[in-house]
Amino acid sequence: MFNKDFRPRRLRTSDTLRRMVRETRISADSLIWPIFIIEGEGICDEIPSLPGQYHYSPDMLGRAVERMRAHGVSRVLLFGLPKHKDENGSSAWDSNGVVQQGIRALRAIAPELYIITDVCMCEYTSHGHCGILCGHYVDNDRTLEVLARTAVSHARAGADMVAPSDMMDGRVAAIRAALDENGFVNTPVMAYSAKFASTFYGPFRDAAGSAPAFGDRRSYQMDPHNGREAMRECELDVQEGADILMIKPAMPYLDLVRECRDRFDLPVAAYQVSGEYAMIKAAAKAGLIDEYGVMCESAVSIFRAGADILITYFACELADAIRKGDIG
């Protein structure tokens, strides 16, 4: 029987005890920092749509490494901006392509880094779509061949992991088979398993020069209304040999991060995308929010939902917050 004199209360704790009993734990090892590599020399230019983020030419990646080391971040996700684009995105698998140059440069100056590469065609095609076109439609099966070829070229250059973001059907199986056939049996695949046709990608498309020249990507990226379909996509990637499943974007899809965590026995990554980052930056600049606090709280929410890995432009700042004990 309920005791009417009982007064439930929260435990009054010191900062030390509060940190000891936190349910959600975050480590700097779980953070991945996206980096944009642009073809050329002597380039280290801030990206207007992503304040605090830069375009680095391969010879200037030492500056990115200095920043990472200063903050204790050691995992990167590389995106490339080539000079040459064509209908087939042929520079994507060029052994001297911009990402391949970047991998080798990072390996030379920072062998301790864990290097992940984005595998997609949108940055490399003249039309900006994520695959090879047949008329105004993406040819799924032809695209699988070039994605696999690109993944192998990244592994040969020294990538530790590849991350296909194209959302073509069967791409995980095609990439896994190609990696294995070329001796990269231990190179894992982090699949963009549920990548939604989101309006949150605007700053990234500006930064990567990857906006489609016509139409949109709704025929191969996911409808934001469809949660069950997202889980089917994740299940297919599990069956095809993915090592990590990713939900993208992160905060608008925390329900799917949780469902993915509950349903599949694989690590779950979430990508806090460019629009999420840019909104926090813009609101903070306008004096509407506390940037540091919102950054921390948003990261905690993603991990609390079930993510094991967070890809975020705030990686360096979050690593500092973890070291201070404000999160983690």
Automatic annotation (TrEMBL):
GO terms for molecular function: porphobilinogen synthase activity. Its EC number is 4.2.1.24. InterPro entries: ALAD, ALAD_AS, Aldolase_TIM. It is an enzyme of class 4 (lyase). Gene3D superfamilies: Aldolase class I. Pathway: Porphyrin-containing compound metabolism; protoporphyrin-IX biosynthesis; coproporphyrinogen-III from 5-aminolevulinate: step 1/4. PANTHER family: DELTA-AMINOLEVULINIC ACID DEHYDRATASE (PTHR11458:SF0). Belongs to the ALAD family. Homooctamer. Catalyzes an early step in the biosynthesis of tetrapyrroles. Binds two molecules of 5-aminolevulinate per subunit, each at a distinct site, and catalyzes their condensation to form porphobilinogen. This is Delta-aminolevulinic acid dehydratase. The lineage of its organism: Bacteria, Bacillati, Bacillota, Clostridia, Eubacteriales.
